[in-house]
What we know:
The structure holds two protein chains of two kinds.
Chain A: E1 4-7, E2 10-13, E3 19-25, E4 31-37, E5 44-51, E6 54-57, E7 64-66, E8 76-78, E9 87-94, E10 104-105, E11 109-113
Chain B: E1 3-5, E2 9-13, E3 18-25, E4 32-37, E5 44-49, E6 53-57, E7 60-65, E8 70-75, E9 84-91, E10 97-99, E11 103-108
Parallel strand pairs in B: 2-11
Antiparallel strand pairs in B: 1-3, 3-8, 4-5, 4-9, 6-7, 7-8, 9-10, 9-11
Amino acid sequence: DGGITQSPKYLFRKEGQNVTLSCEQNLNHDAIYWYRQDPGQGLRLIYYSQIVNDFQKGDIAEGYSVSREKKESFPLTVTSAQQNPTAFYLCASSKGQGATDTQYFGPGTRLTVL
Amino acid sequence: GQNIDQPTEMTATEGAIVQINCTYQTSGFNGLFWYQQHAGEAPTFLSYNVLDGLEEKGRFSSFLSRSKGYSYLLLKELQMKDSASYLCAVLDSNYQLIWGAGTKLIIKP
Lengths: 114, 109
């Protein structure tokens, strides 16, 4: 079955620690996105990548880092520099940007800072 | 700035019809998406409109008026499983999705 997987589903972090959220897709999509969702707000774009070994900052990239070494994978690291990291993180993919492609979402990771 | 407005919450009765509105002000327009999101889950795609008019897909229909910067999602024959948040998102001139905060729909028996 093709799809997008994210792990873990729930993640707890102590202040000052970096954590990495996994995003894997086997849909053969070129574009992958990371969003953050907070209560009462729309999804906000953190980073996105249209091709392997290349990625762009979204609206709220500060305190986050990514890598795109493989087409299938786009892990997100939440660093200690992120002031308020507690949120629901969603990964999505689409065939390719520059087109009106539908984005398909993974199940999400809920990150809580203790 | 870019802005998407949706009502925060709506309540409807099982079996009835409900219309969820979305107004937008964005830099350019390359289409409007509606997604459904159940609590704690990922958004799932419902519809895409790029031309004016009504697109019907089963119990769900989506309407677009580009001149008015307005769309609505129409849900007919409401079922309890339709209780969810409905997200409106606009693809701007840079092909970036701008998201509304979502409308939480509560269905009562």
